[in-house]
Give the backbone structure.
Amino acid sequence: MFKLGRGWRSGLTAFAGFILALGLVLVTGVGLPLQAQVSPSPTAPASPAPAEVPAPPIIPRDIQGHWAQDCLRFLAQQRTIAPNQEGFFYPDQPITWGDFAGVLNLVFPSGTSGGWASPLERALGLTNVANVASHYPPHYFIPARQITRAEAIMALAAKLEAAYPTVANGILTSSLSDASQVPAYAREGVAAALMRGLVVNYPEARQLNPNQPMTRGAAAALLCRANGDPRVQALVPAQYVPAFPELQRPTAPERETRGVWLTNIDSNVLFSRENLEAAVDRLAELNINTLYPVVWNWGYTLFPSATAERELGEKQHLYGETSTPRLEAAQADRDMLQELIDLAHARGMKVIPWFEFGFMAPNNYVLERRHPDWFTQKRVEVPETPLLPRILQQLPGMQPEPQPDPRIWLEGNVLPRLWMNPFHPQVQKFLLELTNDVMSNYEVDGFQVDDHLGLPVEFGYDPYTINLYQTEHGGAAPPDNPAEAEWVRWRANKISNFMGEIHKLVKARRPGAVVSVSPNPYPFAYVNYLQDWPEWQRRGIMDELIVQIYRDDQNRFIWELNKPSIEEARRRISTSVGLLSGLRAKPVTMPWLRAQIDAVRDRNFAGVSFFFYETLWIGPEGPQQRAAGFKEAFPNVVARP
């Protein structure tokens, strides 16, 4: 049995019993115990003494005439609720957070939350990190505080593992007259509950009153609506359950970023003027307004660069790892970037060059051979070899077991990469000069870096960085643990300072140019790659944010959209979402891409950008149907925000 304030009592056993009783009514037509329907066997041994018959349930005195009286009477008959000693339930009194969480845990299964969990998630025993209560402010959960209606509905939806709705705001505005009053932290949960018919609004179905206290009677009505039996759900008067209208797609906004990344890997789009012209025409027909061509990839520039020619011996290199001298020679003196600028600007499209590799570099890189001190490494751990293996290694012809190269990082656990040292002044000078080569010589509309303008957290144990750290820390060496908080913060701040220099240079060369950043979501970007892009936004050193949210799970995708770090950025700068339109070995369907576009628009982001051009047309629907799908999503020409 459980109690809520002065009146509720029940338990998981009682709840299971009332479900069993419902099942018996369905099977036998009566509510008698099952054993009363069966005659005892004549050879059966003598029955034990009859068990004590429990007292009949007590119906609260104060529910008669209440708008939810049928639901309350049913719950009392099933011992899910019970009156106090005076016989009162007080259905119109508020319920607290702690009492409501207790009800949900006793009625519905509860698990053990992980280390990621907030106080509310732990209190509800939620086991999925992507739930509709994920972004509820931790300090708002106070067990003794009265719970609001929006909070209670959100908690119920989270407890029932309700999926994130694709168009949460559309559901709210279609279903509720006071949708604008629903707090941001509860909008996903309330929308999910509306989709499942869980919401009960008395006296007006379309008026939620989201910030008023949830009453005990209204909380009980939620339990009836959450019951799996339609007959129990029907005990709540239908006139208090909001009707669920037909969903409408969000309309295309008047201003929107519609971007596409153009790459030289798994794509031929950059390798001839004819390919570029066809691509620009094709994208213009779909009303795409922004192109992000890669111009720094696989350790080389894809535009003629005096800096690259001086340091790398090649002024440009259009092909990536599959390059051959013959293919590269066929490019002759083409200036791919200038060709693209001319073609795109003629069609009203913006061109923002993309420095994809950032500080990352290929293995066996010419720059590493020329300037090995420009590169960083992981911490070298010297394993202690037992005595016998040490003796064997010293025997003639015996070789010690090779150790992993601390300079190598495996991208995707497959491709060996090197990392230039973000803290080395000569490395910073090199990348700034490459940036200057773009911004000084081309009429571009911006400059973009992505998740590689950072550093894997395990790197930074090269001699230069260790000495720099010791100089700034009174001789103390960096911690052995690469994830140690102060060591992470020190390196991340240095990278942020360099990003400030990038911003300063871009604005000096072209004041109207957009400084664009396309990172991984936060805090993943920070704890794994030392990339503190929320700090970049707070410092004012980026103008556009396009967060890469490459997810094939709806809950995870929308959970990422709602993260506080993104919400903060959206209030200050143009914030869009990077969508994975597919990989050659992993196509993405058009319906899923359209659902992602709808979700982004429903939540009022600045737009989307697709990775990458070739995969726009690759999918089970075929290129023509996919083009028609994009055309439907982007039916008119719009300007960037």
